[in-house]
Specification:
There is one protein chain. It is built from 15 helices and 5 strands. The protein is α/β, with parallel strands linked by helices and 387 residues long. It has a 5-stranded mixed β-sheet, with helices on both faces. Strand 1 (66-72), helix 3 (77-88) and strand 2 form a beta-alpha-beta unit. It is elongated, with a radius of gyration of 29 Å.
Length: 387
């Protein structure tokens, strides 16, 4: 009986040490596996660094120096003082000076500027007479966050501009009025900004993941080798993988737009055929990028991780969550290289502004260039994996 009593604690000690030894062996195995999986290890390091850099330096919730245009029908000292006062608020940056109403409207419709200031003919003479003329400030309110703060700063402009030109000290009363007109979204409804953006955001996420996983799954299962043993070219394989998901993307876009129109009252002012054609271009671009990702990774987990690495900067730097014009120049340059940036401008302009191809040629050409680049890289990488 005493022998049994002495052996029981020893078995417990051995079992405890065995548990620790086996757990330690599994721990070492996982670290070795992680070390070998360089893609996953890079994601662990890069994701927090990327988020910190983007949120710390690129994201600005109070955008300044927003691109603006002026319809200058009178070139006077007072007009120049008003424009200078507007720039001194740090919200407006005048990039264009036009003298035609159609050019003025096209700049706003194409998204090249977010604000337009119209100084009518005979403005200074009417001010000196005391007629209180109106100064029109048109704002592209498809992004209410970017427009609201700038519109709120207009009240200070009168005091600053007139203090040096008409009066010494504060003017006794406002000699002219500023009429701020929020175009395309007068009620500043956030749904009108978010719902069109969701079309591009959801398409980006699903198209990238579907294509990257589809090709990688073939490689993991060994069916890709059987597929390539058939008389078929790499380009034909890629097109066969991409085309079905174009139809899937159409179904997704149709559902989002239909729900947005039916439940949230989002208008569709532009041509639906044009929207469908440019959506096809955008979907194909994302599918090509997803196909490129599939040639860079070794398994489905890595495909998912790399897709998220591309998706994260897309939603942060494209103008979906934060005003694009408020980001620093380097962040805007990065954003211009993302397909979602150009598609968001396209879908919002067509749905909310009724824009035509004439207004969207820059973003259309940018999407086409990104699609050709992605397809070239995808085909080149796929051929290398076969050699």
């Amino acid at each position: 009986m005493s022998a049994v009593d002495h052996r029981a604690p020893r078995r417990e000690i051995r079992e405890r040490f065995g548990f620790l030894r086996r757990s330690y062996a599994m721990l070492v195995k996982e670290f070795i596996q992680l070390k070998r999986d360089r893609v996953s290890f890079a994601m662990i390091v890069m994701l927090p660094v990327m988020q910190l850099m983007l949120f710390g330096y690129a994201i600005n919730t109070t955008p300044r120096h927003l691109p603006s245009a002026v319809l200058l029908q009178e070139d006077s000292d007072l007009a120049r003082s008003i424009l200078k006062a507007l720039e001194n608020t740090a919200y407006f940056r005048f990039l264009y000076e036009v003298h035609d109403v159609d050019d003025f409207d096209n700049l706003l419709k194409s998204g090249k500027v977010l604000f337009g200031v119209e100084i009518p003919r005979g403005f200074e003479r009417a001010v000196r007479r005391g007629d209180r003329p109106a100064l029109l400030v048109a704002a592209d309110a498809t992004d209410p966050v970017a427009a609201s703060a700038a519109i709120g700063s207009l009240g200070m402009v009168v005091q600053t501009a007139l203090k040096h030109d008409l009066y010494i000290g504060d003017p006794p009363e406002m000699p002219f009025e500023i009429r701020a007109h929020a175009r395309y979204n007068p009620a500043a409804a956030s749904s009108l900004n978010i719902v069109p953006g969701l079309v591009g955001t959801i398409l980006t996420m699903t198209m990238l993941i579907f294509t990257a996983l589809s090709v990688t799954r073939e490689v993991e299962r060994g069916t890709m080798e059987s597929l390539l043993s058939m008389p078929i070219k790499p380009v034909e394989v890629m097109l066969g993988k991409i085309i079905p998901y174009v139809l899937v993307g159409f179904v997704q876009a149709f559902l989002i737009i239909s729900i947005g129109v039916g439940l949230f009252g989002v208008p569709v002012l532009g041509n639906l055929v044009l929207l469908a054609l440019l959506s096809t271009l955008f979907i194909t671009t994302n599918l090509s990028i997803g196909y490129t990702i599939s040639t860079l990774v070794q398994n489905q987990l890595q495909a998912m991780q790399m897709s998220m690495m591309f998706f994260l900067p897309s939603i942060l730097l494209s103008g979906f969550m934060f005003p694009f014009a408020g980001m620093p120049a380097w962040a805007q340059y990065l954003g211009e290289g993302l397909p979602l940036t150009h598609y968001l401008r396209i879908v919002r302009a067509i749905m909310l502004k009724g824009a035509t191809m004439q207004n969207l040629h820059f973003d259309t050409l940018a999407l086409a260039a990104l699609m050709l680049l992605a397809m070239t890289i995808a085909v080149t990488r796929f051929r290398r994996t076969l050699d």
